[in-house]
Amino acid sequence: MAKYYYLLLLFVALTVLIFLILEKRNKRRLLLKIKREWQEVSVVNNQKNENGLMKASMKIGAFTKAPTNIDRRTWEDLDLFKVFQKINHTYSTVGEEFLYYQLRTLKVKETDFEQLEARVAYFEKNPVVREQVQYHFASLGKINTNHSYLYFEPEKTKSLTEKFDFTFLGLLPVASLVLIFFAKELGIGLLIGSMMLNTILYLVYKAKLEVELTSMSYLIRALSLAKKLTTYDIPDQNKLKTAMTDLQKVLKWGVFFRTKNGSEAEMILEMFISIFLLPFVSFKVVIGLLQKQQQKLWLTWQTLGEIEAAISVLNYRENQAIKWCAPQFVATEILKGEGVDHPLIENPVGNPVFAAKPILITGSNASGKSTYIKSVAINCILAQTLHMALADSLEMKPGRVVTSMGIVDNLDDGDSYFMVEIKSLKRLLTESKEQAFTYCFIDEILRGTNTIERISASSSMIQWLSKQHCLCFIATHDIELATILGETCENIYFSEEVDEAQGFYFDYELKHGINTKRNALKLLRHLDFPSDLVASAENELAYFEAQHTWRVLPNEE
């Protein structure tokens, strides 16, 4: 009889030894990976699907009572998900979700960024601690679909024990071990039978309840991470200690949810806990404990997300942003900056911005108009969400950001290009009438209609916007608007050059005033269009400039 117990003890000892060796190896590999990836431009395991992040962002906004305030049209116009992916250097789902939420939520005053800057400054000065903290977040990892928010809403939580009573079955293997002392054959038979039954039940119910179990596992492991972070002298140490004091029982009962990162060691551990159905047995107890500590639970979850989001911001500032500055917020309705860059363009040409009244931007296609207004709009958002601007300097009054650009037909609703554009502009006008100060950005205003109506409607719309509580940036091809609105708007432009030596090229540098250059016909000649075609076009242009009307071309069949 004794030899069976010696063999069992030897098996357990070897299993524990293998588990520790694998854990040590995995930790060493993960730390090396974190160190290597810190200075890499591309990030690993970056979220490709935005739907889950949008849902999480809505939940965070509801729990914090600060909903996201950048609308979908503006988010898509400015390719802000691509900007998010460029900034995102998180290793956990909770960090990734809070970074996304922060980038979609404008703040209103300088003091709103004090915690972010305190975290960033600490991790910048303590890279060794930062790597250790990142290791813990990487150990927590990312999951494809995160339903952990279920457990912040007790009324929506289903009790697993209502499905099946696992307590009795979980105790059967333990009882069979005791029974071996009194009836060896019966005890061994019961042990083998209960182990097989419980393993099958574990696999069946784990598949049926994958969402609940995975989400509970992630939440418990996040709390375990919070407890580990209380040992580091980080800015949030005391906050986490206070919250975790009341969550200790949750960790004790949820110990069987702490595994799930997919390592070899944890696969071995899961094999053992499945025999006793331990995750199912502890589920009901953990639910009850969580329902009593909702406030502390949310505080811990939010703090974890904000810590890793801050580390991600630090990574972007140190390694990916060509340049950046802290914005200066002022009470005056003004936007002023130098060397403003676009985050998605390699080797961008930085341009100044100064707006105290509407800005009208003219120029030809591809000259830089659209890129410029997007650069300004994105930096207005970065300044008010992550407290940084990709510029040499930026001074601004806090305000909402609304755009109307990137318009396409809406075939699902049967809307033409012009109808979609009109609806987008109506939304922008409605926003500008609100009390809160607003930055409005319009690219190719009313492009979907004829020239005469476009100019008359555009000039009236810009004039109307100039009287609202907003600052507007409008890009257009219509040079006539620059003349009509000369007293209302500040005129700037981008231009191209055409010469024999360099051909056709852009410098992408902002210029003040109205663009008087006309290079389209020069470009036709430079690209060897038929000479009679180019000559005819030049004659028609000369006629229009002299007569202010177009003449009817004769039919020369």
Question: Which descriptors apply to this entry?
Answer:
557 residues, 2 domains, alpha/beta, elongated, MutS, DNA mismatch repair protein, Chain A, domain 3, Rossmann fold, ATP-dependent DNA damage sensor activity, six-stranded mixed beta sheet, P-loop_NTPase
Task: Write structural notes for this entry.
The protein has 557 residues and is an alpha/beta fold. It folds into 2 domains: 274 residues, MutS, DNA mismatch repair protein, Chain A, domain 3; 190 residues, Rossmann fold (3-Layer(aba) Sandwich), CATH 3.40.50. It is built from 21 helices and 12 strands. A 6-stranded mixed sheet has the order 6-7-8-4-9-12, sandwiched between helices. Strands 1-5-2-3 form a 4-stranded mixed sheet, with helices on one face. The protein has a two-stranded antiparallel sheet with strand order 10-11. Strand 6, helix 17 and strand 7 form a beta-alpha-beta unit. Helix 7 runs antiparallel to helix 10 and helix 8 runs antiparallel to helix 9. The longest helix has 36 residues. The model has no long low-confidence stretch (mean pLDDT 83).
Q: Which class of the largest domain in CATH terms?
A: Mainly Alpha
Which outline best applies? elongated
How large is the radius of gyration?
31 Å
End-to-end Cα distance: 112 Å
How many DSSP helices? 21
Uncertain runs with pLDDT below 50, 5 residues or more?
none
Major sheet: arrangement of strands: 6-7-8-4-9-12
